[in-house]
Amino acid sequence: MKIIFYTAGGTIDKIYFDAKSQYQVGEPVLEEILRDGNVTFEFESKVILQKDSLDLTDEDRDRIYTAIDNDPGRHIILTHGTDTMVTTARHLQTIKGKVVVLTGSMSPARFKSSDASFNIACAVGAVQTLGEGIYIVMNGRVFHPDNVVKNVEKSIFEEIH
User: Could you tell me the CATH number of the domain that includes residue 51?
Assistant: First the structure.
């Protein structure tokens, strides 16, 4: 089974610019995380966007949709910023014949205490075992896009009851 990874930017790829005292989306860190994890599955990594998710437009979401829908792969993981991850996941729900998992992180992957590696690892397990559909994997849980919200105060994703 080959897993296709797409990156759209977000906190997971952010880097800190000391002189500017702010974060900016940098180059994707996905391949480094997979290499450090000593993975043995076949994968391919592709960049769609390198944006903060708060800056994503409907046109950007259409671009993500088209890339994933047109990809011949069945098992796809999209790294994405957490602020609008749910919006993008809902936008992708009409894609058929694929298992698509969106994940990201609450702090940049380059930080030692980041949740990025854990979330990617959970997404890898999820994309290999879930049935066709669109999912969000964060905080060790799998969510359906219609039943999840980001709790900004707690820095976690929660199921909507």
Answer: 3.40.50.1170
Between the alpha carbon of residue 148 and those of residues 55, 58, 69, 157, the distances in Å are 21, 20, 23, 7
Residues whose CB falls within 8 Å of the CB of residue 157, separated by 6 or more in sequence, listed in order: 82, 136, 138, 139, 141, 143, 148, 149, 150, 151
First to last CA, the chain: 34
Domain that holds residue 70: 2-14+23-159
Rounded to the nearest integer, the mean pLDDT of the chain is 87
DSSP 82: S
Position 16 scores a pLDDT of 56
pLDDT value at position 35? 82
**Nearest-CA neighbor of 114 among 147, 135, 131, 139?**
139
